[in-house]
Specification:
about 600 residues, alpha+beta, nine-stranded antiparallel β-sheet, eight-stranded antiparallel barrel, globular
Length: about 600
């Protein structure tokens, strides 16, 4: 829980005010500026004890209504943030990709609904599993079907940085869903779209962005390459930024927290608040004016038009790569997180009102989302609940965390799960293990609130095959059969218990042996004892290998670990075959069966799918 959470009580009052007085074009310019400035200042004041730094700006069209920078870029040395402080954009960088794509579309150089393989080198995609073509719209909607890549997203070693083409080849994930079937947020898919920009334009992506976005907008204080070498001023300023994580009972400093994003078009842009604001304003030009990014008004209109909806509700989910969020009447934009910064850029295309927020805190939500409620107002959807079957309680697993095969198959069962439990109020659910609550607001429509500013839409969809899923902003979440899910978890826990038992028995036997040696007693230590100790040791080693395999490093190391694990799997059975009448025969046999069956089911041998 964020330390800023202590200030949430004030959000209620501010939300009430913001619902009654959301920013709009019709509001008096001076009064609007004063009002929103006072509200944000009050919010920051209440939250300041849990703040490293916050830089925020609110705009209406090309007019900046409010801007402030509060806190420290270096808390330890009390270095205050200012107009020269740079923050990492994180995933907001993806908007540069989608703007680039729409610029090429405007020039007639790309068809958003054509097979992307027509724009890529021959045999570039090698892990496609379905015949349905993938289009640029699928990449924009994150529905191309790619599983998460196991390739490191970032590195602390600049020597690891390679060209976008080579990085994509090395990190290509398997396609596990047919195109258009499932929404699963994909950094790799966005970077693939950026590579298509390279293929079509003949420029590297950073060169293209500089020439067609940064220069036209006058963004002189923003870099996009992983090491920021495309802008030496930004590169130097980034050395001055320190990053933090603040919780109710702890304060953690990550120092400079410099990591290089290898799939850089998905999250490496870094720059000042002023440049961030300039880019945001380019998406909401004044009436009758063209955006500096496009030659035609229709191109921007198309960019901001819906490309996907939540189920059959009519609620807009995505607009050519821009996500919708449930604040005000619905806003468009993107959020971003890196290993040290959190940002957001959202706007209301109808009122042309928007906000940009930048912080040097990892996973920050109180500002990046809490301020959206103040600026845009609370989400208002008339409740009209008529369905009798409204219970969505159960265990859900993320489509993004799903690995169809290989050593990471286990991941969806130990992470990214959403366990929902219905409360005494049939329209309210608790998310177990977190402070989140889910509230039904209409038939099959729910709002998930993390209690610290972040509110997301959840929509229940029942597919033709009888499965139930929840669609949220950037991914689908599938409902698991509770009995099957529990059985799989117990199956895994039995293996963990076997490893723990082997460890205890190994220690007990070694202590007993040591005791006898120290007491100078006769030690009868023959082949059965040696085999038994070796078997316990190998079972324990299997647990270490499994844990390290799940946290994959690289292909060769993972392959070696998988092969070694397969060899270890045979040891308990060798013991049973050779010395089957010993006292520990049955225990070791059970250990061997649990080890072998888990290796087979979870595919811990399948390193080639990494």
């Amino acid at each position: 829980m964020r330390k800023k959470r202590f200030c949430n009580f004030i959000i209620v009052g501010l939300l009430i005010f913001s619902v009654l007085h959301p920013i709009s074009v019709e509001a008096g310019e001076d009064s609007t500026r004063d009002s929103i400035g006072a509200d944000i200042d009050q919010y920051i004041e209440e939250c300041k004890e849990g703040t490293a730094s916050i830089s925020v700006a609110v705009f209406n069209g090309q007019e900046t209504l409010y801007s402030t920078q509060y806190g420290y870029s270096n808390v330890e040395d009390q270095v205050e943030v200012d107009e020269d402080t740079v923050y990492e954009w994180g995933s907001v960088t993806k908007l540069l990709v989608w703007v680039s794509v729409m610029q090429l579309y405007e020039k007639g150089q790309i068809n958003l609904e054509e097979d992307i393989q027509n724009y890529l080198p021959e045999i570039f995609l090698t892990k496609l599993q379905y015949d349905e073509p993938i289009t640029m719209l699928h990449l924009m909607n994150h529905t191309a079907g790619f599983q998460e890549t196991t390739y490191p997203v970032e590195t602390d070693n600049p020597q690891d940085i390679e060209s976008l083409e080579e990085t994509l080849k090395q990190s290509e994930p398997t396609q596990i869903y047919a195109a258009g079937e499932v929404c699963s947020y994909s950094n790799w898919g966005v970077s693939l779209a950026a590579y298509m920009v390279e293929c079509i334009s003949g420029q590297t992506f950073d060169e293209y962005v500089k020439e067609n976005i940064f220069v036209p907008l006058g963004m002189e204080h923003t870099a996009i390459l992983p090491d920021w070498s495309d802008n030496t001023w930004v590169q130097e300023q980034r050395q001055e930024l320190y990053c933090y994580s603040i919780y109710e009972d702890s304060f953690e400093s990550y120092g400079q927290s410099i990591f290089y994003v290898l799939l850089y078009p998905s999250g490496a842009a870094t720059g000042t608040l002023d440049d961030f604001l300039t880019f945001a304003k380019s998406l909401v030009p004044e009436e009758g004016e063209l955006s500096p990014l496009f030659e035609k008004e229709a191109t921007l209109d198309l960019l901001l038009s819906p490309t996907s909806y939540y189920g059959d509700t009519g609620l807009v989910r995505n607009c050519h790569g821009l996500w919708t969020m449930p604040y005000g009447d619905g806003i468009l934009g993107h959020s971003g997180n890196t290993s040290g910064c959190s940002t957001c850029l959202y706007f209301d295309p109808d009122f042309k009102t928007g906000a940009v927020v930048m912080t040097n805190e990892m996973g920050e939500t109180a500002y990046c989302y809490g301020l959206l409620s103040i600026i845009f107002g609370d989400y208002d959807l008339d409740s009209n609940i008529t369905a009798s079957d409204t219970d969505i309680s159960g265990i859900y697993t993320s489509a993004r965390a799903t690995f169809e095969s290989g050593v990471l198959k286990l991941s969806q069962y130990i992470g990214s799960i959403l366990p929902l439990k219905q409360t005494d109020d049939p329209q309210v659910y608790d998310v177990l293990l977190t402070q989140d609550t889910v509230t039904q607001i209409d038939d099959d429509i729910f709002l998930c609130d993390n209690g610290n500013g972040l509110v997301k839409v959840l929509v229940r969809v029942r597919d033709n095959d009888g499965t139930t899923r929840l669609e949220t902003m950037s991914q689908d979440i599938f409902k698991e059969n509770t009995v099957t899910y529990v059985a799989k978890v117990l199956f895994l826990l039995l293996y963990v218990a076997a490893v723990a038992c082997a460890f205890i028995m190994l220690i007990v036997n070694l202590i007993n042996l040591l005791y006898r040696l120290l007491r100078k007693k006769k030690v009868n230590f023959g082949k059965p004892d040696i085999f038994r100790l070796c078997t316990y040791l190998t079972v324990v080693l299997s647990g270490v290998l499994v844990n390290s395999i799940i946290d994959v490093e690289n292909y060769i190391i993972t392959a070696i670990k998988c092969i070694l694990l397969c060899i270890i799997t045979t040891v308990p059975f060798i013991y049973v075959i050779i010395l089957k009448r010993t006292k520990s025969h049955r225990i070791i046999l059970v250990m061997g069966v649990l080890l072998l069956s888990n290796v087979i089911y979870w595919q811990w041998f399948n390193f080639w799918s990494y």
